[in-house]
């Protein structure tokens, strides 16, 4: 039988089963209360279900009926109507109808009525886009040449009776330009022996060379007596080929012109019909209106032959 001290030891021992069960009851109740409080707080802070949130929001405004949209579409200009076709698939289907585009097409291009008759499957919107693009392509801004005079060298060789009379090679930036911005340039001839027999056949070669020997184009390869200009010079001209894909037989509508101006200081043997060449002029002329083309137009023409691959 245990003594009194033994029973006291049992009562105060922490590992005693009876004593531990008595102390764990309030701790267990406190843990359950904490868990219940956490569940209540979590449920109060969680968002409302989608159905409840949707019920609190204002409904979206109703879409206008298609009849109203199509009535408004009839008052739109072609550019705005084309933008409306990009809103969605349903808008594209509605805004691309021939009922909307046929009046626009006929008002701008009445001949489109006959074009539609040749191909009924062609939509009025597509036909209007093709005709509008063709008009804009005609009035597009001119191209800017990729070469300039500083990239070019003008070389001229003149023969008479199979003997060289004059040879000249001038960089483009050293030539004297003509006023008005036209493709016509002048150069002084400093060779005192450059004289011609007036009235005799002359062979002239004029070549434009790209610096760095990237390309060359013969502007003139002419044999003839030339045209007298008031007794003070001779004028030579020759047609030029068309640029690009056109054949040379069609003609480019341009002519290369080269003029020789004689000296009036008494140099040369005038009794023998010889005159000294003092100045030379070179130009590019349009045969449509017999005017010199602009510098940019002349450079664009040369660019077709000097840079055939656009390198």
TrEMBL record:
<feature type="compositionally biased region" description="Low complexity">
    <location>
        <begin position="40"/>
        <end position="55"/>
    </location>
</feature>
<dbReference type="GO" id="GO:0031146">
    <property type="term" value="P:SCF-dependent proteasomal ubiquitin-dependent protein catabolic process"/>
</dbReference>
<dbReference type="GO" id="GO:0005737">
    <property type="term" value="C:cytoplasm"/>
</dbReference>
<feature type="compositionally biased region" description="Basic and acidic residues">
    <location>
        <begin position="24"/>
        <end position="35"/>
    </location>
</feature>
<keyword id="KW-0833">Ubl conjugation pathway</keyword>
<comment type="function">
    <text>Acts as a component of a SCF E3 ubiquitin ligase complexes.</text>
</comment>
<comment type="subunit">
    <text>Component of the SCF-type E3 ligase complex.</text>
</comment>
<feature type="domain" description="F-box">
    <location>
        <begin position="67"/>
        <end position="106"/>
    </location>
</feature>
<dbReference type="GO" id="GO:0005634">
    <property type="term" value="C:nucleus"/>
</dbReference>
<dbReference type="Pfam" id="PF12937">
    <property type="entry name" value="F-box-like"/>
</dbReference>
<dbReference type="GO" id="GO:0019005">
    <property type="term" value="C:SCF ubiquitin ligase complex"/>
</dbReference>
<dbReference type="InterPro" id="IPR001810">
    <property type="entry name" value="F-box_dom"/>
</dbReference>
<comment type="pathway">
    <text>Protein modification; protein ubiquitination.</text>
</comment>
<dbReference type="GO" id="GO:0016567">
    <property type="term" value="P:protein ubiquitination"/>
</dbReference>
<feature type="region of interest" description="Disordered">
    <location>
        <begin position="1"/>
        <end position="61"/>
    </location>
</feature>
<dbReference type="InterPro" id="IPR036047">
    <property type="entry name" value="F-box-like_dom_sf"/>
</dbReference>
<protein>
    <recommendedName>
        <fullName>F-box protein</fullName>
    </recommendedName>
</protein>
<dbReference type="GO" id="GO:0009740">
    <property type="term" value="P:gibberellic acid mediated signaling pathway"/>
</dbReference>
<keyword id="KW-0539">Nucleus</keyword>
């Amino acid at each position: 039988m245990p003594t009194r001290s033994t029973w006291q030891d049992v009562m105060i021992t922490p590992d005693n089963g009876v004593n531990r069960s008595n102390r764990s009851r309030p701790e267990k109740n406190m843990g359950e209360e904490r868990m219940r409080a956490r569940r209540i707080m979590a449920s109060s802070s969680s968002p409302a279900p989608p159905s409840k949130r949707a019920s609190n929001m204002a409904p979206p405004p109703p879409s206008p009926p298609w009849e109203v949209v199509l009535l408004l579409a009839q008052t739109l200009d072609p550019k705005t109507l084309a933008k409306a076709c990009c809103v969605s698939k349903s808008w594209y289907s509605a805004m691309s109808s021939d009922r909307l585009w046929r009046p626009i097409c006929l008002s701008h291009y009445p001949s489109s009525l006959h074009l539609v008759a040749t191909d009924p499957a062609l939509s009025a919107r597509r036909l209007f886009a093709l005709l509008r693009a063709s008009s804009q392509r005609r009035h597009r801004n001119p191209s800017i040449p990729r070469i300039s005079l500083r990239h070019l060298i003008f070389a001229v060789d003149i023969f008479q009776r199979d003997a060289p009379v004059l040879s000249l090679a001038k960089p483009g930036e050293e030539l004297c330009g003509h006023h008005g911005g036209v493709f016509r340039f002048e150069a002084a001839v400093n060779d005192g022996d450059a004289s011609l027999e007036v009235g005799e056949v002359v062979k002239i070669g004029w070549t434009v060379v790209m610096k760095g020997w990237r390309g060359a184009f013969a502007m003139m390869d002419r044999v003839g007596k030339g045209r007298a200009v008031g007794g003070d010079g001779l004028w030579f001209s020759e047609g030029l080929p068309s640029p690009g894909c056109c054949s040379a037989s069609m003609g480019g509508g341009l002519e290369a012109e080269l003029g020789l101006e004689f000296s009036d200081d008494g140099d040369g043997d005038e009794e023998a019909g010889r005159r000294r060449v003092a100045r030379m002029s070179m130009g590019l002329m349009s045969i449509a209106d017999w005017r010199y083309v602009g510098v940019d137009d002349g450079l664009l023409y040369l660019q077709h032959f000097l840079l055939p691959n656009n390198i």
